[in-house]
Design a protein that fits this description.
This protein has six helices and no strands. It has 110 residues and is mainly α. The protein has a domain at 3-71: Helix Hairpins (Orthogonal Bundle). The termini are far apart. The relative contact order is 0.11. The model has no long low-confidence stretch (mean pLDDT 79).
Length: 110
């Protein structure tokens, strides 16, 4: 399974593939524990497939890669504007962050 093949699938198809891959991994682990698994490299192949599927899903969540749904119906993407220079200076001049240190016994008693 290649990433390009996964990127053209819709979200529900990716979910189904993820569920079937996880089920297959469960069955392979069970066979391995019982001693019936002949080719143990299948476990790593299925794990890599799961990682690929999850990567495509996360890319779509973050909007890194285009999804099939976006190509059919364009959606507006909100872009956050950076704060103006005056606002950035005001934020920087606020109270400094307290140091993270251990409190002494005297401070605990007060």
């Amino acid at each position: 399974m290649k990433v390009d093949e996964l990127r053209i699938l819709e979200a529900d198809e990716l979910g189904m593939r993820l569920r079937t891959a996880r089920r297959e991994l469960y069955e392979l682990r069970f066979k391995h524990a019982v001693g019936q698994l002949e080719n143990s490299s299948q476990i790593s192949k299925v794990r890599h497939d799961i990682a690929r599927i999850m990567t495509v899903i996360r890319e779509r969540d973050f909007g890194i890669a285009p999804s099939v749904e976006e190509e059919t119906s364009p959606a507006a993407v909100a872009v956050a504007e950076p704060p103006a220079e005056d606002e950035a200076v005001e934020q920087a001049e606020e109270a400094p962050k307290p140091k993270r240190g251990r409190r002494s016994k005297k401070e605990d008693a007060e």
